[in-house]
Amino acid sequence: MAQIIGLPKLSPTMEEGVLVKWVKKEGDKVSPGDLVAEVETDKANMDFNIEDDGVLLKLLVKEGDTVKLGAPVAILGKAGEDVAALVARAAGMTATGAAAPAPVTVPAPDQGKTAAPAAAPAAAPAAAPAPAAAPAAAAASAAAAASAPGPAAGGKLLASPLAKSLAIELGIDLRMVSGSGPGGRIVERDVRAAAAGGGQQAAGGGQPETVERPGTGAGDVAIVKAPPVPALYGDGPGDFVDVPASNMRKRIAARLTEAKRDVPHFYLMRKFDVEPMMGFRSRLNGLLGDRGKVSVNDLIVKSVALALRRVPDCNASWQGDVIRKFRRVHVGVAVAIDDGLVTRVVRDADLKGIGVIAAEIQDLAKRAKERHLKAHEITGSTFTVSNLGMFQIERFTAVINPPEGGILAVGGVVEEPVVKDGALAIGKRMTVTMSCDHRVIDGALGAKFLGVLVEQLEHPESLAL
After folding, report:
1. With left for phi above 0 and alpha for psi between -120 and 50, is residue 309 left, alpha or beta?
2. Any residues with CB less than 8 A from the CB of 269 and at least 6 apart, and which?
3. Which of 85, 105, 396, 436 has its CA 20 to 30 A from that of 311?
4. Would you tell me the crossing angle of helices 296-310 and 275-288 to the nearest 10 degrees?
5. Rounded to 5 degrees, what are φ and ψ at 18?
């Protein structure tokens, strides 16, 4: 019997994916484990493997389409089966958001154009008749209100408090303004644009607002005109371009927002003498010759792994009502790619030699930029290293990657005056900053970890033991 195949979860944090390429086509026979498509997730391009036998009777999405997790992507069955009913059912699932909650839409103010006349704000003059002395102004106001793009039937005008206050100050009828905020909400820039553009009239029929000044004689009034408001920089047509966020960028945004909101960060900073490590690296590369190169980052990853072994309480994460202490050390290494940042994982880094770590990181970085990493290569890290030293950044603070308990931010090598043997000299220093989850790592514990880390880097031969 034919069945609808939904988009599977290809990474732990995946919520949607872009179908990059169909490897199989309609009419192809497939078996369990066969690769049918390549899908871009929030982490990397992942293989979409089928789990059933059959024939791909219908492909429901095109290459380049963004698909929600679990949404229909294909129909699998026996050759010759009629799948018209399943195609219609899949279309209904997509239209109604059966695979994922559909977004709630809020009517915009200008959606009231098709509402029944009784729904328009023209009823206001009937409840409060205009003074006999100004019948023309009242009629004009009522006509403007009746034709305004006001709220839909039974709704209310959607405007921020600041927009409402500003509209009163500038004499702008909000019913004549189209909102650019979420759900058509009128925001400050809409009111200012209306005032600057001259296309909106004051609510009183286009006449200057008259305000009686307190303390003046009876009948004395002052004419108050709204001052001209220049258009806001960047709000004009052609002043900006909206670039759709990739799945990876959207996931990064969600994860970092969650981390900064939910994880109580604090920061510990250490500066150390980097010359011994640089000399050790030079000697290692001399020994390796054309078999590869060891970077400063490789030595730091190895040192972090050994420090986590010596201070195991930092190799932990907060789990709500328990602190989970990991028995193995998996170090995540952040790498920048076109769409954002990927953390590839060096597993059991404390047990691997420096040369092995260097080769593994180089391979992972290359495949990360090609978006060919597998799920297990980007998940499961227990601590992360983020290095911006190669970009001449002296020091920075990094955001923790939940559920890890910490992350180390590595700055560049800086030449500065130092005291050596009681005399002033030029030395090379590096600054590392540890971001700690205070629920897991206290100040003294984090300081102990950094102490071990720096001791190893200032005596780098210990990394080979």
Report:
1. alpha
2. 395, 431, 432, 433, 434
3. 396
4. 110
5. -105, 125
- Starting at the edge strand found earlier in the chain, the sheet holding 340-346 runs 265-273, 423-437, 406-420, 383-387, 331-337, 340-346
265, 376, 438, 459: the catalytic one is: 438
Residues linked to residue 432 through DSSP beta bridges, in sequence order: 270, 410
pLDDT at 72 over 80: yes
376 CB-near residues (< 8 Å, 6+ apart): none
Question: Nearest 5 degrees, angle CA 36-CA 37-CA 43?
Answer: 135
Provide the pLDDT for residue 443.
Answer: 97
Segments in 129-274 forming alpha helices (H): 135-147, 161-170, 188-197, 247-262
pLDDT-derived band at 145 (thresholds 50, 70, 90) equals: very low
User: Mean of the pLDDT values across residues 14-35?
Assistant: 89
Q: Confidence band (pLDDT; 50, 70, 90) for 123?
A: very low
Known active-site residue 372? no
How would you class 225 by CB atoms within 10 Å of its CB: exposed for 0-12, middle for 13-18, buried for 19 or more? exposed
Residue 416: Cβ within 10 Å count? 10
Which CA distances in Å does 189 have to 109, 194, 229? 16, 8, 11
C-alpha R_g of the chain: 32
For residue 52, give both structure tokens. 């059933």
- Count of other CB atoms within 10 angstroms of residue 127: 6
- Which two tokens mark 306? 């050994």
215 vs 9, which has greater pLDDT? Answer: 9
Q: Alpha-carbon distance 342 to 371, whole Å?
A: 9
**Residue reference for tokens 């009034």:** 221
Evaluate if residue 302 carries a pLDDT over 80: yes
Largest CA distance in the chain: 100
Amino acid, single-letter form, for residue 377: E
Determine the Cα–Cα distance for residues 61 and 18; give it in Å rounded to an integer.
10
**pTM of the prediction?**
0.60
Mapping DSSP onto H, E and C, the string for 125-153 reads: HHHCCCCCCCHHHHHHHHHHHHHCCCCCC
The Cα-based distances of 234 to 230, 231, 386, 393 in angstroms read 12, 9, 34, 30
Kindly report whether the peptide bond that precedes residue 403 is cis, defined as omega within 30 degrees of 0. yes
Show Cβ contacts of residue 143 under 8 Å, excluding neighbours closer than 6 positions.
none
Paired strand residues for 17:
67
Number of C-alpha atoms within 13 angstroms, CB side, residue 351? 6
Q: At how many degrees (to 10) do helices 188-197 and 161-170 cross?
A: 20
